[in-house]
Amino acid sequence: MEAVWQAPQQAAARERSFLREWVLTVDHKKIGIMYGVTGLFFFLVGGLFALLVRTQLLNPAGTLFSSQQFNEFFTMHATVMIFAVIIPVLTGAFGNYLVPLQIGARDMAFPRMNALSYWLYLASGIILLLSMVFGMPDAGWTAYPPYSLQSPGPGIDFWVTAVHLAGLSSILGSINFIVTIFKMRAPGMTFHRMPLFTWSMLVTAFMQLFGTPALAGAVTTLLLDRHFGTVFYNSSAGGDPMLYQHLFWFYSHPAVYIMILPAFGIISEVLPVFSRKPIFGYHAIAYSSVGIGFLGFFVWAHHMFVAGMSLQAGIPFMITSLIIAVPTSVKIFNWLATMWRGAVEYTVPMMFASLGFIGSFIIGGFSGLIVASVPLDMHLHDTYFIVAHIHYVLFGGAVMCIMAGLHFWFPKVTGRMFNNRLGYWSFWLYFIGTQVTFFPMHFMGLAGMPRRIASYPAEFQLWNVVATIGAYILGLGTILIMINLVWSAVYGPRVSSNPWGARTLEWTVSSPPPEHNFDDIPVVTENPYQPYGEPEPQPGFAPV
Which segments constitute the Cytochrome oxidase subunit I profile domain (predicted)? Predict the structure, then answer.
């Protein structure tokens, strides 16, 4: 009966128009691909903004554009990279494509709501780019009042609208992930048999669901203050600008973990495959994600140590900020233990995951411990040390993982293999570019160079020139990656359903997977991270 049903369905799929095949699709895989393609486009846009900012800083006088334009470009860079690239690519692209496949489901719980989430995200990005025509936001990606209240033009209004739509997309997506994972797992797929990427997406979904409304409240009240006469943040009329910071960071520090937990999940899938070993400490990695998700809501005020809050109020947040490093360290220990004495194969995904991610993220984590301390943060806050820290976490961390995941699942999505030589070249450009761009910023920050300035004293020029050279190396690496993936998607050699010898359920179906995912819903009988003793992995499921 299944085969009789499948044939006309496949024939109909070939005859669909582009409108029905993509624009009106509710297939989680196609929605995931649209998230990914859109996110990579915005990645190019956000990267271009970064190169403009770094080019401005080649010269201490900053002659490329005005200080106002500099404010606009670094605001757009950060906003695009956070709200239009990292969060939607990790949760929308990887999450949508992989979670149903990994748990043995045929689709997400609410397919139409899933499609709506994507179109809200796309609308958010378009509105953000439209601000370049009507007036760009200039208050940084945090949009702190009172400056954001007084910012002329519609730029902040575009920013608020874009953030609102992105937040609504995240809320709908998180509801979908939670219901899908709780209610649609295949028979035998217990929580302790779920792949670790799915674990990370479950925790991330809860964080988005609980945190995003705080951001919505912050930007809504900001808009009301700007245009409707309210005084939430107007201190001269009794308002409190600190209230905005509390609301904003109650979401935006958990957002750091929203941007890194799915990345951790990607690493937990890549490392055991290319180490040819089971993941070390499966339960520790899974429950450390839960610990990070819980503790992430108790650290927000460490961004506000110098904003006017009392030192005594900062101490509990300093303690929680230090404690949250423990579950992260547990993950790093387990990843290293997974590779220890394994038959490690340094493929392109493995290079991004091991040397690229772990080698860079440890630096960002260590600098995070430094700025979590109240006395050190009072010295380093609003310097380039913070810029170095956040970029090692988000670029050396999240973006390296995105690249690892793109190369790891590329054969599954396209049915073709990428060019290995271009892959290795792009990795080394990324790894070297990351260190050359962001490591010198530690030195600039320790020496007292403020961030978010369009010009600077001449003694900082050397390290700014070095950082700008590194940024162009990253730009070249990005171009190589895009060329490789686009060319390989059309002309790359065809691959089998499981070219890496991986063991999770997505590798048990064809590459690319059929529209219905599974001919028969699998029955799971074992953990996906079993010893790699067979030449071809024997998946732990059988058809109903």
Answer: 22-525
